[in-house]
Design a protein that fits this description.
Helix 5 runs antiparallel to helix 6. This protein is globular. The two termini are 25 Å apart. It contains seven helices and nine strands; from the N terminus they run E-H-E-E-E-H-E-E-H-E-H-E-H-H-E-H. A hairpin with a 2-residue loop joins strand 5 and strand 6. By secondary structure, it is an alpha/beta fold.
Amino acid sequence: MSDFQGKLFVFSAPSGSGKTTIVRHLLQQDKFGLEFSISATSRAPRGTEKDGEDYYFISLKEFKNKIKNDEFLEWEEVYRDNFYGTLKTEVERIWAEKKHVIFDIDVAGGLRIKSKFPEKTLAVFVKPPSIDELKIRLKKRSTESDDKINMRIAKASVELATAPQFDKIIKNYILEDALQEAEDLVGSFLEL
């Protein structure tokens, strides 16, 4: 591990809640010194996703080998044979740059990171206005089949129940308000 151990910012939510939009906004705020933690996944790229930028796309076999070799800070089989995880080397890479780590991650992974670094982590849950609104947002993406969307909606109910386990909850009803609240939370945690 690097000598510099920055703070960790976990943003978790059901798909379509707006967490990625919030994380991208925070990354543009130079005053925070944030670097995005790129997750590894065993799934294929969607749309315009790029390896090493959006995710590290690795084979299912390679992912399982990395689990066996304890190379992950956290990992999860989100859907059958569809793994996501945070490589330890990713956090080390960011800390070596003397930056703070920001995660856009599923709720189980987010809570695992919080449990491993309880004092250094601010875990934020992004709450959508409603399940119906989530469904509308997911359909607008046009990146997944109706079956996949229905699977995500079913999972969202379970994920919403975990919200109280997070340090803070941002209600993403009006995007501008959610972005400002996220900035305020990060600034406060960094004591800026």
